[in-house]
Amino acid sequence: MATSHTKKAPPGAPSTTALLTRYWISRDSLFGWLLLAMLVATTSVYLYSINEITDWQKIFFDAVGDRNAAALMPITLQGLLILAIFIPSSSFATYFQQWLQMEWRNWVTRDYMQRWLHSPAYHSMGQSSSLNRLSDNPDQRVAEDVSILVEKVVGLGIGLVKNLANIFIYGIKLWIISKVLVYYFFVGEPFTFRGLLIICTVLFVLFGSLIMEKLVKPMVGIDYQRQRHEADFRHSLFNIRDNAEQIAFYRGHQHEKRRALQHFSAIYRNWRELMRFSRRRTLTETVYMQAGNYYSYVFTLPSYFNNLISLGDVMQLNMACARLRSSLSWFVYNYEDLAIVRATLLRLREFEAQLSMPIESTFNYRPSTDGSLQLLDVQLNRPDGTPINHIDRLVIKKGQRCLLQGPSGGGKSTILRTLAQLWPYGSGTVRLPRQENMLFLPQKSYIAEGTLKDALIYPKLHTSLSDEEGAALLYRVGLSHYIHGLNTSADWSKQLSPGEQQRLAFARALFTRPDYLFLDEATSALDARAEWEMYTLVLDALPDVTLLSVAHHAALRSLHSMVVDLPSTHQDIDAYSASCQEA
């Protein structure tokens, strides 16, 4: 099956350089630069000790070749001294590298969380259908892709610095000690060519790098798709876990199994492709490494057998050649990690593009000078442009209680989303008072992690609500049997029934005491008596509140001063003028 592995960043995505340097040019990067300096310093000491080990090996093997047992003890002590430098420098280099990775990730994560959850970016990502594939699994971008990118970039960057230093060190070392080499190639006279070993090493590495790039370049696109398929599969399993009871009631386990396995089948097919290219990479890398382990002996052994160099010289030359080849082979050995980085950068650039171009609302939002809510010549559309309904004029004066009723799909909830500035699809003028005095209670109440008191005061983070006040609020909304759990952390969205969650939402309204309260079928899970109790409780506690309700029960009309009956979308919506009547 032919698959396209080419993937480009969308328009508006930042460059790779801009994405990688955002932290390093920020005001918060001073400590990161300090950690980087410490990392470079310990890495330099580590490289120095590695170089000393290479020189020590020549001395050691010369003593072994000369059978000089008396010289072995001081040489061994010298080696132990070098190890005393090598071991801690290697340990601290790893320590500072990990610290730097976490500092960088901490900054990027906080930056993304701020930008992602800054309204309306996170909401538009969930609602946009046209940009859906750019913003799929934003949680994975923040949690996994940032971690992968930072870890790989720091590791590869330090590895690159090490290898560049090694290229310089061992290139000079080979240039110096290879001057005594004499080359024999089975025919002709022996000859000398200073630097021939270096040139052949460079050509060997270039050839291997070109082969590797040619054979396994599609791994970038394959890894990009792998992360997406894994996230989709994880999401389907999370959905089963989160809605297990509803699925069981519907006997929908076969459907859910089929859908989850469809996602896993995509992982399976992707993995087969990855296996194919991994086989190529492994085969190429193995041949390259094995050939590299022995080709240098072709250049050094002839001189050794002709007594031009010692055994220690052979070992030193081959060690230096191996380290030079290994350093020049950074691209070959790290191709898989580089492919992962390129795929991760592409995903994060898509995420950045989505963050930088939130969906612009086509409504004309203006402040309301008299505290009223006004929709003037408002056209409500779906994301694809299909019209939902048209409101010629709807004015809810401050202190009024308005009830929206009508058939499903007529735009009742969409009106509330428009007033909350969460629905960008449509046109017209919307006049609003100050938003900080508003509270929206949706049909499905959201309960964040934490204690029941945290759920009561949500979305506030800190408050002076006492246990007695919290208990009183729970008692008033009929949740007195949960008073003992006020300071208990639990998954309250699972502990409370849908009706109890809606009661808790009304307790939030009593605590918040908003000037404007919007109820979007906020009592749909309650029986008629409990619904009446919640409405009267709020209206008695907040006599001056401006109320806009979406509900179907006719009994609630008497609790509102104005009722708006929206027509079906099948009617002539362009000629529709909101029919309002005083209750």
TrEMBL record:
Subcellular location(s) of the protein: Cell membrane
Annotated keywords: ATP-binding, Membrane, Nucleotide-binding, Transmembrane, Transmembrane helix, Transport
Molecular function GO labels: ABC-type transporter activity; ATP binding; ATP hydrolysis activity
Keyword Transmembrane: yes
Highest taxon of source: Bacteria
Gene3D superfamilies per record: ABC transporter type 1, transmembrane domain, P-loop containing nucleotide triphosphate hydrolases
GO annotations of cellular component type: plasma membrane
Domain ABC transmembrane type-1 intervals: 80-339
Name of protein: ABC transporter domain protein
Organism: Zymobacter palmae
